[in-house]
Structure formats: structure tokens, C-alpha cells
Amino acid sequence: MGKMAMTHSDIADPELTDLSFVDQKRSPDRELELTMPGNFSLVVVGDCIMSRPLTQTMEQDRDASGVLRLLSNADLCCGNLETSIFEPSGFTGHPYPWDGDWPLASVPAVAHDLAHFGFRLMARANNHALDWGIEGMRETTRWLRAANIVSAGTGENLGFARCPAYCELPPGRVGLVSFATTFRPTTNALDPFGAAPGRPGISGLRVRQVDVVTGADLELIRKVRDSAMTSQTAPGSDPEQVHAFGRTFEAGDGRYYRFDMDEEDLGGILRNIRQGKQSSDLLVVMVHSHEVLQEGYPELPAPFLKELARRSVDAGADVFVTSGIHHLGPIEIYNDRPIFYGLGNFIWSDIQELIPKELFDINRRLLKRAFRFAERATVADLNGVLNARSFAHELAFESVIPVCRFTQGRLKDIVLHPIQLGYGLPLTQSGIPRLASGEASERILHRVRQISRSFGTQIEIRIEDNKGRILCA
Predict the structure, then answer these.
(1) How far apart are CA 131 and CA 354, in angstroms?
(2) CB neighbours of 237 closer than 8 A, spacing ≥ 6?
(3) CATH number of the domain where residue 150 is located
(4) What does 20-37 look like in DSSP terms, one character per residue?
(5) What is the DSSP string of 196-259?
(6) What's the pLDDT score for residue 20?
(7) Is the pLDDT of residue 230 over 70?
(8) Strand runs (DSSP E) across 375-426, as ranges?
(9) What is residue 5's predicted lDDT score, i.e. its pLDDT?
(10) What is the pTM (predicted TM-score) of this model?
(11) Which residue range forms the structural domain that includes residue 230?
(12) Same domain, 164 and 223
């Protein structure tokens, strides 16, 4: 994976050179226009980690039922499904918590619950898509189809995982392209190559982290590597970089890191975005990405993500959404198209009872430090201890629900509805989205306005009705 040297026309546009070969009434540029007629409203949300049906619980809660009404009033709802759906009894797959993370699981009724909420499109390319192996991936597809939910981002080979999925609605056709930059090794799908078969999995965009250090630091790292490792730099490798201890270092003007996108992956993804837009009236593109600008600034996207989002819009994306960072990110309006650099969590269930013993074994030492009788620790106890390391704060339990409103093929505005997921409530009540009000609503809206300012985005905050608004047309 090397640095990108391609221009926009290299991928997003095949660069037509002879107009005589094109039907003048079907020019390539025209096919990339937003053609959804009339008034159309789209709700996009972040991570949906939902282990059990929640409709009845939410209907009994005033603020949660407000979320249900908000979703039902939209023409279409789309989100990132970060779980596997299957019936545990008779399931032939297995859990794979290889990196010590939760293998997320949901009962089949979750699919029908999501459909009841109003979800018709779900992105599936993420680092939890194969928590329960290929069998879990296939079962999830089966249950979603039974609930009339269209999904994208996974498939029996790379072609199926990468291709757009479509939802047919009375106003028009909506497409979805889903891919991930954060995923586990060997969970990305492959196409057949020669006699080698392909591989089921997700649509992955491989990125390589490069740690930039000072010249003096680079030489020190090179010396430590050479003294600690018997193998030296491989012939033909980049002399300006040092590969050591599983990382890549190069000299620069400070200490930071960047991410380089794989050119072949990027080309295939942008080609499918272009294809998806040519075949739909409105195209949503969702990427699952944990990569941020630098440690300590999780709300700021890494530079490659900004480039990726804008290239996706140039290729045909009408809405670009980032999931995965578990908190709010900035909002940008680029070429009259919204880019969401992080929508946080929409549903985050800590009720995860299908946890393999391996996860307890991996965290045995941590449990012994936390509990006097570690052998009595339950799944909920383990989840609580693990969450305390990374998610013991309000940021992971606050977000916004954006309602993108289009009129006559143009983005009119985006109305932001702040939500809270009940940080600190009992497990049966936390992780459920509720409309925020008062001080909490104002805090959430001010945060997203602050972090969006560097993108030139102006957000009007209406305290009286607990909403934010981005005027676009």
C-alpha cells in the first residue's frame, strides 16, 4: 500500500474525451445529479448495537417515543448495523473475539424491530460484521431480508460486498454503498484469483498508519530495530521508511501519524459509488472508521477521511456518513452534499449475554483486580469493567439524529435532533435513544456546532424546541 498519487479524474470520473460516443440526453455528468423529485426526508444514524427488540420499551417512555415518531415521519431511515442477528438454538457458527472485543449478537426479532422503527437500509461493513463468522454474516442477511430491510457492505465475495444496494420507494430509488477502513484481519471479502476461490466478508478499504517522527528519532528507531531483530530491511523497500515492531515510521517535521489508503481498494469503492449514483435518485455512502486525527482529539477526523469523503461526493455520493467512533464528529457541507464525520451511537445495548468464555479468559487478570470473587463475575460485570476503560463518559451516550430534507433535487436543510442514551441508567434502560432537552440538548448542539466551524458549517440552535438547523438552500 503506497501513497496516493491519483487525481479525482483518475477514479471518480473516467474522463470522457470524445462527446460523439455519448447520448447527449444521457451525459455522464447528468447521471450523477440528485434526482429525487418533490420533498424527501432522510434520517441517518450511527451505530445500531441492539441485542433485543425495544419498541415496547420505547413506546412507554415519552422521550424515547419521540424518537420513534421522528423516525416514522421520515421517508427513509438508514444506519450502521453493528451486530450479528441469529437464533442461538441450532446456530452452526462460532464466536470469534480474537482481539478481546465483544462478539455482538442479536435475536431475530431485532430485524423486525428495526423495520418497525422505519429502517429500510442498513450498512453492514464494520469490525463486528464477522463476530460470529461467515455463518453469522449469512444469518444476519437472511433475517434482514425477512424484515424487508436492504443491506450493503457484506457478501459472498468482494464484488457482492462492494456493490451498491437499492431500496425502491414511491418517490424514487435510494442506493447505499457501505465499506469500512477499520476491520479485523481476513474479514474483508476477496474475489477469486486464478484457481484460488474468493472469500466472504465485508467491503474493506485498507489503510496503513505511518508514524511521522523527527529525523533523529527515525535513526534511533532504525538502530533499535537492527539490534533487536535479525532480519534487516527487505530489498527494494522504501529507504525513507523504517518498518519495525509492526509499525511504519518516516522522518517529518514533527511527531504525528497519518493514514495512507490502498489505491486499488479506493478505486473499486469509488467506481461502485459512481455506479450506485447512476442507478439511483439519491445515494447514501457509509464508512465505518475508527481513525482520528490524533490521540486525545477523537472528535477530529483523520485527513484521509476528509479526502475520502470529498472524493466520494465527487464520485456521486449525495450523503456521506461516518460511523464507528462512538461519539459525535463534525458536519461539513461540500458541493451542496452533507458529510457527517461521526454520528456516534444510536442504540448501544450493554445487554450482551452470548459472551464466550474466551473473553473471560482474556480479561481474567482485570476481573481479579476488580472483584474479590472474580469467578462469580457475570457477563454484565465483565461488560461494565471493559466499558469503564473507554466509554465511561457522556460523549459515548450523546448524539444527534439528522433529518436531511430535500426539495426538488436539492438539499434544503438538515435538522439536528439531540439525543441521550441514558448513561448511568440500569442496563435495561441504558443505550436507548431519547430526545434530549434543556441543558443536555443545548450542550450537545453547542458541541457539534463548535467542532463543525472549521469546516465552514453554520448551525442555528433553537433552544426553544431543542433543535439545531443547517440551512443549505
Answers:
(1) 11
(2) 243
(3) 3.60.21
(4) GGS-TTS-TTGGGS----
(5) B--B-EE-B--EEEEEEE-HHHHHHHHHHHHHH-SS-PPTTS-TTEEEETTEEEEE-SSSEEEE
(6) 67
(7) no
(8) 398-407, 410-420
(9) 38
(10) 0.91
(11) 207-257
(12) no
Say how many domains are in the chain: 2
For residue 457, the one-letter residue type is: T
- The confidence score (pLDDT) of residue 17 equals 64
Least confident of 106-120, 356-370, 448-462: 356-370
In terms of domains, do 267 and 245 share one? Answer: no
Q: Count CB atoms within 10 A of the CB of residue 464.
A: 6
DSSP secondary structure of 337-377: EEEES-B-EEEE--------HHHHHHTHHHHHHH-TTGGG-
CA–CA distance, 155 with 158 (Å, rounded to integer):
7
308 within domain boundaries: no
Q: Which residue has the cell 533523529?
A: 216
Nearest residue to 329 via CA among 472, 441, 423, 451 = 451
CA distances from 396 to 83, 136, 421 (A): 18, 26, 8
pLDDT, average across residues 310-328: 95
Are residues 277 and 243 located together in one domain of the fold? Answer: no
Q: For residues 469 and 13, what is the distance between their CA atoms, to the nearest angstrom?
A: 33
pLDDT tops 60 at residue 9: no
200/177 same-domain check = yes
pLDDT at 376 over 70: yes
Look at residue 103 and tell me if it is in a domain: yes
Q: Are residues 234 and 364 in the same domain?
A: no
With CA atoms as reference, report the closest residue to 445 among 424, 430, 464.
464
In a domain, 13, yes or no: no
Q: Report if residue 291 sits inside a domain.
A: no
Within 10 angstroms of residue 22's Cβ, the number of other Cβ atoms is 12
Rounded to an integer, what distance in angstroms lies between the CA atom of residue 467 and that of residue 469? Answer: 7
Residues 224 and 267 in one domain: no
DSSP 336: T
Other residues' Cβ atoms within 10 Å of the Cβ of residue 173: 15
**3-class DSSP state for residue 304?**
helix
What does the block give as the cell for 459? 448551525
Q: Are residues 273 and 131 in the same domain?
A: yes
State the angle between helix axes of 62-72 and 109-117 in degrees (0 to 180), rounded to the nearest 10. Answer: 70
Same domain for 453 and 328: yes
CB 211 within 8 A of CB 247: yes
At 466 the pLDDT is: 87
